[in-house]
Design goal:
32% of the residues lie in helices and 23% in strands. It has 273 residues and is an alpha/beta fold. It has a single domain, classed as Rossmann fold, CATH 3.40.50. A 7-stranded mixed sheet has the order 3-2-1-4-5-11-8, with helices on both faces. It has a two-stranded antiparallel ribbon with strand order 6-7. Helix 1 runs parallel beside helix 5. The longest helix has 19 residues.
C-alpha cells in the first residue's frame, strides 16, 4: 500500500464511527422508514430511472447508505470500500434493515480482481469519491472492467471547478487549488471531519487530487464507454463555501448570490459499448 493510501485509510477509519453516529447519515431514519432514501440518491432518482433488477456496484461506498438506497430502488447491490471501519457500520445497518447488500473490502483500483470482470449492469459512484484517487485513467479502466457490454456508469460528483475554490474565503470566490489532475497530491491537515463533532482526528493528514471534467470524460471514452448524459448542477448536498451558501428544503446548498457563476456538482452517465 502506498503512502497516500495508508494516510487516507487511517483518516477514513477514524471518520467512520463519527459519521455513523451523526444524524447527517440518518441511520435512524433508515431504520424507521423502509422507503427512506439518502439525500444523494433521492436527488439522483430522476436521472437514474428504473434500476429494478439490475446488478449494481457502488464504488467507494463508505457507510453504505447510498448503496442501501439503491437496493431499496430494486437493484441487487454490492458496496466496495477500502475502510474496514466504514464497512463494519455498513454491514451492521444492512443487517438491521434486512437489506440484501453485499459489502466487500478492497481498494477501488482492485475492484475487478475483488469482484470479477464484466459482472455488473450498473457502476455507481457518489459525491466525494474521485478526489481520493491519483489517476482518473486507472479509475476509468476499473469502471470499464466491471461493466458488462451495455452496462452503465452513473456518477454524481463534486464539480472540478468547485473543487478549485478556497473555502477559507467567506466574502468572495477565490480559486486556490488545481483544476487539472496533478502528479503530486494536495496535502491537507485537518483535525475534524464534515459532520458536526467535537472530536479531533489524530490521523488528520490526507492526500487528494482534482480531476478536470475533460480528463474524466476522455478517460472513459478511451476505455470504450460512450457518454450518454452530462448535467452540471448549481447545488451540492453539503455547505461547500460556508458564509456564501444557503440550504433549500431538499437539503441542497447553493450560492446565496450569483448562482449562475459556479457549478458545484455534476452528473455523468456513460454506457460500455
Amino acid at each position: 500500500m502506498s503512502d497516500y493510501r495508508e494516510l487516507n485509510l487511517a483518516n477514513w477509519d477514524e471518520r467512520a464511527p463519527l459519521h455513523a453516529a451523526s444524524p447527517d447519515y440518518a441511520f435512524q431514519r433508515f431504520r424507521e422508514d423502509p422507503a427512506f432514501l439518502s439525500d444523494v440518491v433521492r436527488f439522483d432518482v430522476p436521472r437514474l430511472g428504473d434500476i429494478r433488477g439490475l446488478r449494481g456496484v457502488h464504488l467507494q461506498c463508505h457507510l453504505g447508505t447510498d448503496t442501501i438506497s439503491l437496493a431499496r430502488l430494486g437493484a441487487t447491490m454490492t458496496g466496495l470500500d477500502f475502510s474496514p471501519a466504514a464497512l463494519r457500520s455498513a454491514r451492521e445497518l444492512a443487517e438491521q434493515l434486512g437489506a440484501p447488500v453485499d459489502f466487500v473490502q478492497a481498494d477501488v483500483y482492485d475492484a475487478v480482481e475483488a469482484l470479477g470482470a464484466e459482472r455488473f449492469d450498473l457502476v455507481f459512484t457518489g459525491i466525494g469519491a474521485l478526489c481520493w484517487l491519483p489517476s482518473i485513467e486507472r479509475w476509468a479502466r476499473t469502471v470499464a472492467g466491471l461493466l458488462r457490454p451495455g452496462g452503465r456508469l452513473f456518477l454524481r460528483e463534486v464539480h472540478p471547478m468547485a473543487a478549485t475554490l478556497d473555502e477559507n474565503h467567506t466574502d468572495r470566490l477565490v480559486v486556490g487549488y488545481p483544476y487539472f489532475e496533478t502528479a503530486e497530491p494536495m496535502v491537507f491537515n485537518e483535525p475534524g471531519t464534515y459532520v458536526e463533532t467535537e472530536r479531533e482526528l489524530p490521523a488528520m493528514t490526507t492526500h487528494e487530487w482534482n480531476h478536470g471534467l475533460g480528463e474524466t470524460i476522455s478517460a472513459l471514452l478511451a476505455e470504450g464507454l460512450e457518454l450518454t448524459a452530462l448535467a452540471e448542477h448549481d447545488s451540492a448536498p453539503w455547505n461547500a463555501l460556508p458564509g456564501l451558501m444557503v440550504r433549500d428544503e431538499a437539503g441542497e446548498w447553493r450560492l446565496r448570490e450569483h448562482r449562475e457563476r459556479v457549478p458545484f456538482t455534476y452528473t455523468l452517465q456513460a454506457r460500455k459499448i
